[in-house]
Amino acid sequence: MTDLRREALAILQERDPDTKAKRARALPLDGPLDPAAFIEPGPGIPGRPERPLLVTPMSLKPRPTHTVEGRAALIHALTHIELNAINLAADVVWRFAGMPDRFYRQWLTVAAEEALHFQLLRAHLRGMGFDYGDFPAHNGLWEMAEKTQGDLLARLALVPRTLEARGLDASPPIRAKLVAAGDRRAGEILDIILRDEIGHVAVGNQWYRALCTERGLDPVHTYAELALRHGAPRLRGPFNLQARRAAGFAEDELAALAGP
Q: What's the pTM value of the predicted model, to 2 decimals?
């Protein structure tokens, strides 16, 4: 078969969401892989469907979860995040050459799990009488990927360890809100997602620290510098400290969350 890093690029460029998810889950993780290869990207990064309409985050107003449409809008937002997460994992695999073999296989595993999350959420959304694309969405996750495309250290710091780690904080209250509104299935899906996302953020933490060590950098100071340089959103509590610890955040990093 084709080199797995090239397969990751093809998944990233795939426009149909269901096909993208199926391809990500079908990748043989023990297949051939060349860590040193420089891969020409070509057009269409990332591959996107015609819908949903992408708007600014400020344009998206919360909807009441006591209505079916309000709950569907929230599930739709989560579905959009998971589709973006497939793209982000695939992008790390093809774009950044020269890492150990295990690095790429870990991120391919992440892509497969994000694809499962997308499939679970989309199926649930369809069961509610809606579908992916029925509500507008924003592009914040991919915008940070573009900002950090030239530096793997910045990518690891600001995507898995920042934007995706925010999901560790947000997941429990979102779950509670949906279950309180009577959506037990959504609660079950969010339990699966939180369990897996702890592992995904842990992969980001592992390789971020490895690169900091390799470059002789202090992880906490370097994170603050990268967040400022690339305009990362300011992290606001409450924080899910238990999940963040399980994902590999050190105590000095958790202490820094409460800093100015």
A: 0.96
